[in-house]
Amino acid sequence: MNKKNKAGVALLLSCAFTSVLYAQNSSPYSYFGIGGFNNVDDARNIALGNTGIALDAPDYINSKNSASMTGISTRNVIFNVSGILKYNSISSNLGTDKRLNSNFTNFSAALRISKNAFVGISIQSTTSSDYKISSTIPIEGTSNEYPVTYEGSGGLSNWGISLAYKINDNWSFGGKIKNNFGTIVRKETISTISEVEISRNIRYTGFSYNLGTQFKKDFTDNFQLTLGGTVNFGSKLVSKREVSYTEDQDYTNTVTSKLSSRDSSLPLEMGVGIGILAKERYRMTFDFTQNNWDKVKNTETSEQYYRQNVYGLGFEILPGKKRFENISEAFIYRFGLNYDTGYYTINKAKIDKLEITAGLGIPLNKVNLNIGYGYGIHGFQKNVSIKENYHMLNISMNILDTWFRKKYIE
Known about the structure:
The protein is mostly beta strands. Helix content is about 5%, strand content about 60%. The strands form four sheets. Strands 2-3-4-7-8-9-10-15-16-18-19-22-23-24 form a 14-stranded antiparallel β-barrel. A three-stranded antiparallel β-sheet has the order 17-20-21, with no helix packed on it. It is elongated.
């Protein structure tokens, strides 16, 4: 790898660490649980309705299924960096709030280490907590109320190592180990005769594991079927809570306690996917994922959990030519739809999400640039108290390189 490539990789790595530290969601729903889950996948996955369990990945890193690394082509090293620009419009009976935020979401690299074996690493921002909510609480024994402000920051990140093995031309397996870590800060400021601030700093850490498989078969020259499956095993998060009480920014009292691992955990997740490629040009993908949040308990906030189902559908149109006279003839067009039932209730209302996406793939020399746009509604049901509409722009860059090439001297 030459000096320019090394410098580029170092720059991408530094950007990825920045994203882990400063990832934001800017949604009031990030108040609940361990924060709002970030979409850290490649812009190609997101544009295809956030699908990818059965998606081939010869020239990009598909974090939906570690088994897809076995599709890496002769350029045996891929570096990926992804980012998001998101505009939120949040409305409730108290008014409307609009926010714009951006951050890096993912850095990953994948490498072919032998004919059939592959390895990958990744650094991602898993969840983020970023909100400011004003409300009131009743004064016991009276009809009066105190104003209170809730603020949150921080989130969970993870680093992971993936391995994949290609059994034959049709079948492959993969697995990933992740370490989840981070701190979520929750502040409550109550304004009475004096101002009281209650700050809860909750530090999380814990490992999680997943397995994936893909099966691909060509039935005719014009029809290819890919099947995929993933299992993310439930994991416990070791957590410590530090609670500080501050009155009039003068007197402070701090108490540290260890939380039960049963109260802080990630659920068992199972997913299946189907991919169809017709005439080497038209691709359809469908994913179904189920998360057993109903088995998880969290006592930090008041929401109730239920089993989560996520449905994703994507369409991709590949170039009709093998050789291109201009770059526009090489464009790849993508469209998608994703529906998430959510996993918690607020005032007996389920907080679901609907998202419509479109994207463009631009293959350049040793670089694949993927751009995606999405419009979503968080709190899609009519009976929710807070509705969030958002526009998002996803950008990812996949750098292709070749290592361990033999040098020939004439």
